[in-house]
Amino acid sequence: MHASTIQAADMQRSGIALSATVIFALVCAECAAVHSQGHVQGQIVSDAELVKVPVIVFDKKGSVATDLTKNDFRIFEDGAEQQIIGLEAERVPVSFVVLADLSSSMTRKIPFVQDATLSLIDEQPEKHKSDEYSVVGVAARSRLLVPFTDDQEDLEQRLSLFLTPTKENTALFDGVWLGVSTADEEAANKNRAMIVITDGGDNHSRYSLRETKRMLEEADVPMFAIMAKSSFLFPGFSSPSEGNPLPHKKGPMGAIPSFPSGIGVSDGDYIGPAERRGPENMKTLAEASGGGVFTAKREEDLPRIVHTLGLALRYRYFLTYTPDRLFGARRNQSATADRPQQHKIRIELSPKDKFPGYSVPYYKNSYTSAN
Which SS3 state, helix, strand or coil, does residue 281 take? Predict the structure, then answer.
């Protein structure tokens, strides 16, 4: 990716912003001037901040929990509990960036890459709720293979031309930068997510793990890594260009009712604790973005994991609050700061005995404000 593009994307992410994400929760902030202290030489002083937190919740089976209310959540900022003033629960359109590792280390796992990509596509998109997909290929350099499109049938046909192995090194961190930049600059939907299909290795990037982690902390694009266990191999693989079709096997999917009454997940649509573990690089980056890592142990695990992850990103809760630090004594203390302040976020379900085995694993747990 060209340095000028990275710099431009980085500049666009400056200012007051909050991002967090549940399959799997993701936190983003929207700041608004809504409080006036009166007229001072014709000027209005505004200092109120509205924080909107996307949250994904899993139930005790690992399925996406969709029947929660505002009263089921507690949210804390810097250790102090906040008053939740709003909860949105609806199916949202998502712009997905699929980051496909096509480097030499993934040669025998290319069918895994192909199947994971196809499993993500929503087979029954709701009217006026259009998801879109973009595909970035990673090898010695990162390339945008497919610009954002909502034509799922066309995308499925074109993937066989692009998702083929290379004999190159892996510039995975550079690919993450390109994926975030693509989402920032080209995504049509406000809600975005990056799905990285890889073994987690990097041996060719210009950007370091530390630089990439810092960038993801500031971005509004949660990253989720889908990984195959080392034993997950496809011996004798030859690419689709040699006459073999994509290995994806589509199964029937039920209609998806309106959120939050249920999303039609079956007993087979879940993500267990063992599948949330992955190599350290991906864990570090995913958690910095508010995302997570999922590992498929067997071929049959893959569509279940990816489908459930896709549901979780499409059916998120959005909690809204105004930080109480902006009022009273805490507000006066904050106002004396002459530099941006970092704030820690914690979300939990309450009462705990009502939600045994539930988890709120994915959201960005910190953000920076102007005061």
Answer: helix
Give the SS3 label for residue 54: strand
The domain covering 94-242+256-314 belongs, at the CATH homologous superfamily level, to von Willebrand factor, type A domain (3.40.50.410)
- Which helix (H) or strand (E) is 348 found in, with range? strand 341-349
Contact 69, 87 (CB under 8 A): yes
Residues 138-142, mean pLDDT to the nearest whole number:
94
Is the pLDDT reported for residue 306 higher than 50?
Answer: yes
Residue 242 has a pLDDT of 41
- Rounded to the nearest angstrom, the gap between the alpha carbon of residue 240 and the centroid of all alpha carbons in its chain is 29
DSSP 251: -
pTM of the predicted structure, to 2 decimals: 0.74
Find the length of the chain: 371
**Domain chopping of the chain, boundaries:** 12-90+317-369, 94-242+256-314
CA–CA separation, 140 vs 205, rounded Å? 8
Write the CB contacts of 371 (distance below 8 Å, at least 6 apart in sequence). 47, 334, 335, 337, 340, 341
**H-helix segments, 102-244:** 110-120, 152-162, 172-186, 209-218
Top-confidence residue, 359 or 32: 359
Percentage of residues in the chain with pLDDT exceeding 90?
39
Handedness of CA 75, 81, 82, 87 (dihedral sign): positive
| Best-predicted range by mean pLDDT (15-19, 80-84, 151-155) | 80-84
